[in-house]
Inverse folding.
């Protein structure tokens, strides 16, 4: 109980700091997710029309996923030093976008590819143009799987985002990092817990977004 | 009028799916493309709305080559029904039915009116189903909606690719009847793919029987049944082709040609049949109940006479004699 009291005292004293770091974390992961979706979904859709490129791109994104996150953040430093952004928000932001690509692109690509061929046939047969087919038939029917990819990547990036503190991008990783260096488990637990809660909340919000975007005809 | 002029489709690798096909579909006719799997009937159908390209030859609609038409506009002017109905699961029934009018940018009021008209035509309550989704409907209802969607923009031509093929036999027969009823109102020019000879006889004004991409015979169902042009045709339509042929004739035809028998004098409590019943079913009823005769009723349910197996035989003999020489298989049956 002693430990618990200490911990609660720490949180009350340091609350504004914790909230600031949480906001930084949300900002980093949120912005990178928005950009990642803006790149990944259109690219995934485009790849369904270009099989040759699809293999290459999916392979490349898979390889990015295998790079340990701390190494990827490390690689960003010399690259972004060239434009004087070696540490801080920019390299972390870019690294997270790269990490997000595999689940988003692969799910989008697979979802569009797997739309029932009879639906595509009917859509073409009744005289839809390619863009109408995409907007009215293929994307609406692929939304649940596309959103599953988005949720995976966001939840994953909330975790990976904690490592971004190593290259000075701030966020909840700062707490964990400080806790490790000072052997202060209060900080570590606070940071880890905040990251988890953030991930659960983000997933819940995206689940609601998914429900709103999915036609009732696909769920009931 | 749809005209097929030396139409050939060659797939990569040189396999001919459709091989030098020539025939004409008259306005308001249902032509059934009939044949075993892989005979090219679906490919031929899909060439009409350019879902498949034409390797050589030409297809023209009202003397205009479809090659010279914009493919999007061509497809919007042709109704398309497929076996799996192809309804869009993300759209409501109303959206599904009015999708082509949406693409053609009709205003909302006109679309809604058209929706109500079509739902009444196919026998579904417009208000009840407007906001429902396809998965909430039974297979038969979905297929009806598929037909309504194809009719939405009132295209002169319908392409139907085994539209009732996935339904159970009872529902299939019901939808066939309903569709023939709808056709008497809308009078579309229809190409209808089927692998089922009974369906072809029932639905077709004419039947094009295909094998390996070639047309084996293009004829009215009655002629196809009585005058098969070659072994493949007679094999495909089966040994029971005379029985099948009876489904093309009704008791009314029999009444006109040979008359009915007198009503039995003693009390009769067997089945009665309507004058519009076809002779195949009548024959089956006769054999089923083992009676000498069944009583025929007119459209007012008045009993007008009786039918016997003998009469049906006489009708067959007379019908055939009127048309053909004595070498037909009927001869043996009728003597």
């Amino acid at each position: 109980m002693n430990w618990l009291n200490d911990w609660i005292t720490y949180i009350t004293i340091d609350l504004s700091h914790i909230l600031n770091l949480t906001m930084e974390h949300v900002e980093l992961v949120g912005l990178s997710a928005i950009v990642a979706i803006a790149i990944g979904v259109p690219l995934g859709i485009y790849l369904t029309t270009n099989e040759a490129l699809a293999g290459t791109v999916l392979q490349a994104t898979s390889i990015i996923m295998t790079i340990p996150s701390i190494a990827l953040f490390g690689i960003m430093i010399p690259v972004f030093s060239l434009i004087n952004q070696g540490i801080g928000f920019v390299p972390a932001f870019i690294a997270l976008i790269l990490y997000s690509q595999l689940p988003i692109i692969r799910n989008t690509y697979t979802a569009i590819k797997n739309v029932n061929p009879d639906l595509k046939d009917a859509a073409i047969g009744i005289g839809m143009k390619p863009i109408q087919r995409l907007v009215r038939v293929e994307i609406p029917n692929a939304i649940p799987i596309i959103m599953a990819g988005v949720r995976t990547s966001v939840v994953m990036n909330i975790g990976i985002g904690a490592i971004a503190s190593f290259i000075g991008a701030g966020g909840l990783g700062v707490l964990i990092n400080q806790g490790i260096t000072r052997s202060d488990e209060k900080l570590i637990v606070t940071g880890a817990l905040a990251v988890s809660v953030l991930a659960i909340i983000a997933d819940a919000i995206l689940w609601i977004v998914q429900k709103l975007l999915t036609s009732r005809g696909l769920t009931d | 009028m749809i005209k097929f002029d030396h139409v050939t489709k060659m797939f990569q690798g040189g396999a001919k799916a459709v091989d030098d096909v020539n025939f004409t579909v008259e306005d308001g006719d249902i032509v059934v493309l009939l044949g075993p799997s892989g005979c090219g009937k679906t490919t031929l159908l899909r060439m009409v709305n350019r879902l498949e390209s034409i390797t050589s030859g030409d297809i023209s609609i009202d003397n205009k080559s479809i090659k010279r038409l914009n493919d999007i506009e061509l497809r919007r002017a042709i109704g398309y029904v497929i076996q799996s109905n192809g309804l869009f699961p993300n759209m409501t029934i109303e959206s599904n039915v009015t999708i082509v009018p949406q693409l053609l940018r009709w205003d909302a009021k006109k679309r809604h009116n058209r929706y109500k008209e079509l739902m009444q035509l196919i026998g579904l309550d417009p208000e009840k189903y407007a906001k429902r989704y396809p998965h909430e409907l039974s297979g038969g209802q979905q297929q009806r909606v598929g037909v309504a969607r194809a009719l939405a923009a009132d295209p002169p031509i319908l392409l139907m690719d085994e539209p009732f093929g996935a339904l159970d036999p009872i529902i299939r027969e019901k939808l066939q009847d309903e569709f023939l009823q709808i056709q008497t109102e809308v009078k579309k020019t229809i190409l209808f793919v089927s692998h089922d000879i009974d369906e072809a006889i029932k639905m077709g004004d004419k039947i094009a029987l295909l094998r390996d991409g070639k047309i084996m015979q293009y004829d009215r169902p009655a002629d196809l049944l009585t005058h098969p042009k070659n072994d493949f045709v007679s094999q495909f339509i089966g040994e029971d082709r005379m029985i099948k042929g009876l489904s093309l004739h009704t008791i009314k035809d029999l009444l006109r040609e040979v008359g009915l028998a007198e009503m039995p004098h003693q009390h009769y409590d067997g089945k009665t049949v309507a004058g519009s019943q076809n002779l195949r079913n009548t024959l089956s009823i006769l054999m089923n109940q083992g009676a000498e005769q069944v009583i025929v009723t007119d459209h007012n349910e008045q009993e007008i006479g009786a039918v016997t197996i003998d009469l049906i035989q006489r009708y067959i003999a007379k019908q055939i004699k009127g048309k053909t020489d004595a070498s037909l298989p009927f001869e043996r049956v009728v003597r």
Notes: Chain B touches chain A through 27 residues (CB under 8 Å). The longest helix of chain B spans residues 169-186. DSSP finds 16 helices and 13 strands in chain B.
